[in-house]
Amino acid sequence: MSENPKWIHHPGDTYSVVTCQYVGNVRHGFRPFYALKAGPFKQRATAWRHGVAELGHDDFNLAVVRNGLLVAMLWDDELVDDDSEVLADVSLQTHVDWEGQP
Predict the structure, then answer these.
(1) What is the mean pLDDT of residues 46-73?
(2) Total domain count for the chain?
(3) pLDDT for the residue 2
(4) Residue 37 lies in a domain
(5) Are 41 and 15 in contact (CB under 8 A)?
(6) CA-CA distance, 92 to 59, in Å (whole number)?
(7) Among 75, 72, 90, 87, which residue's Cα sits nearest to residue 34?
(8) Which has the closest alpha carbon to 73: 12, 17, 1, 30?
(9) E strand or H helix that includes residue 80
(10) Range of the domain at 69
(11) Contacts by 33-38, CB closer than 8 A, 24 or more apart
(12) pLDDT at position 77, please?
């Protein structure tokens, strides 16, 4: 059983494939680098299949956009992150609007 909750989908949600790599070094530390790979897709399953086909693996996340704003990051159908600091970082790097923006 996973410790991450299942995502509750809302009508109109769209999904984009996002990868994350950590860059840096031991001396100066590491930070995540997010890249938008594909999307938006109207169906989560379509985005997931596209990500697996495009990347050849399932080591990616789905950015959930609701009403034009980034609201969460998923892995398959599980909530990975909805923390405002993480979403702000993803938004800045992928140019997907975030709900915490004024």
Answers:
(1) 93
(2) 1
(3) 47
(4) yes
(5) yes
(6) 21
(7) 90
(8) 17
(9) strand 78-81
(10) 14-94
(11) 33/93, 34/89, 34/90, 34/93, 34/94, 35/93, 35/94, 36/63, 36/94, 36/95, 36/96
(12) 85
| Residue 54 domain-assigned (yes or no) | yes
Distance CA 74, CA 63 (A): 6
Average pLDDT over residues 94-101: 71
| Helix or strand run (H / E) with residue 37 | strand 29-41
The model's confidence at residue 99, banded by pLDDT at 50, 70 and 90, is low
In a domain, 67, yes or no: yes
The predicted model scores a pTM of 0.84
Tell me if 58 is assigned to some domain: yes
Give the contacts of 41 (CB within 8 A, at least 6 positions apart).
14, 15, 16, 47, 50
Q: Answer for the pair 73, 61: CB distance below 8 angstroms, yes or no.
A: yes
- Measured CA to CA, the distance from residue 56 to residue 46 in angstroms comes to 15
